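Retro notes - structure team

What went well: the batch runner handled both jobs without manual restarts.
What didn't: labels got mixed up in the shared folder, which is why I'm recording both outputs here explicitly, each with its sequence directly above its tokens.

Job 1
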Amino acid sequence: MHRLVPKSIQAAHFRASNKARQSRSRRPLRIITQPLSSKQNANGGIFPVHVLGSGSIGILYACALQQSYFEQNSRIFDTFSAANFKPVTLLMRSHHENRLRKHPHLLAPVTILDAPRFGKHASSNRKTLSREFEIPVELIGGLKHDHAPIKSLLLCTKANDAMTALLSVWERLSPSPCVEKDLHQKFSTIIILSNGALAIRDAIYEKFGRSLDESGIDIVLATTTHGAYKVDSDPLEYHSRFRITHAGKGSTYCTNSEFIDSCKLARWDCSILSDLEMFIMLWKKLAVNCVINPLTAIHGVKNGDLLNRQFRHLGSSLEYVMDHILEEVSAVAMIDIESRGHDINAMQSASQHLSVPVLKKFVTNIISKTANNISSMLQDVKSERVTEVRFLNGYVVDFGFNKYSVECPWNQHLCEEVEALQQIHRHSGIRLEALNDNQ
């Protein structure tokens, strides 16, 4: 089995000869916060990357991108440069500091657990495989807040936290005053990988408008079908590891070729899409989230259990409920595409991909692939956190009605059910029990 990136950033890939170690020992320690020169890093791509959002998906991608960078650049670094250049950095809030290793910088110790596969992809060995990483960390806010420029920002926060999180680092996305502005040269790239990417993109443009072009910030849309969730650990325990279960291996889609190339080096399934293809894919992903997230949260089950569950208060089966949810999503998506003035070929392609039968097949396939996953909305309800339902089902409701006067009662009903469920648990003090192995 191929050896993946070890847990220290001074990885085995970069162990130098005795002569190189002696040479390094005579050099003063310095921290490199900017990309290396073209000679040192001919294939820099999106690196260095800052990952904003330390949830399961954010940490999963941080580890994959770190692995990707080492795979790509393992032969051009000596021990000194490898120990000081940070290709991937997690941006975390200050309350995480006690969990981080100080060796010599803040590091997040991470264990990625690969859930065993079942069905046609099952292997004879169903043991859970694990990989360990240590990801450099910068704390947001407080005295230790870093102000160095950010080249690439991968946004993986909850949709309802996205704008607040972005504003906390926005000044680092603007060009340095000493750099002459070139409106054709993008200084920073924001890759939106969060759920509710369409809603987040709209919120960014609503707040910043034309200043995005003036500041040289490029907004890129991405989406993923990977499933992951955090395994409980004591956040107050010193150096407590972040343990992430990679419950469903999916695909990554983006309009940015450098991001896709980096994910491919991590041996992930990836595709680069055109703007129209990404638009269609995000509506398909929104359809997935509008079905899986609220229904798993309401019923307290893993994704795969939706296939065998009866929804008596909504209908007779998942298929019946899904049809109504997806009819509304499809209607709003198609009206939105029509309003953008695409040509006839684009409209035919969109009509095919966003039809209810195709969406249903796509959603069912994702449910099967992520059968062992605990949805992010169910995790939020269990932890008594605010859910993203208003950025998912709520986005369909508000966008459809406010812009096109299309009513979406089924999605509205799911919003109300999830919010009512949150209120019940918040006021009663009752927390959902952890899912047992049979769910």
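Job 2
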Amino acid sequence: MEKEGISYVDAVVSESGWPSAGNGNFTTPQLAQTYNHNSVKKFLAKQGTPKRPDHYLEGFIFAMFNEDQKPSDVEQNFGLFNPDGMPVYPVFSQSSKLYRESYELTAMMCYE
């Protein structure tokens, strides 16, 4: 964009994720956990890139829940939680405040 004369544009990652199942060894809960854990760490660090160190990255994890109404492939398996509210894998350390708050929020949403 700089070549076109646009030198200052903020970008937000609108959604990012990794499926936990649906395509063999390329889509495992461990790979999805690693991907999302590293994304959250990057977003929370509020550090920029070498070219723009004063502009940090923002983004959203896709998706909150696995979607069992979608066709049975990777599209069903981007969620952090199963439709019953149980975690697919732990995104945050169980000792962290973020983990406790996210688990409590999910429990309230699913069981009220």
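One thing worth noting from job 2: The radius of gyration is 17 Å.
We'll revisit the folder naming next retro.
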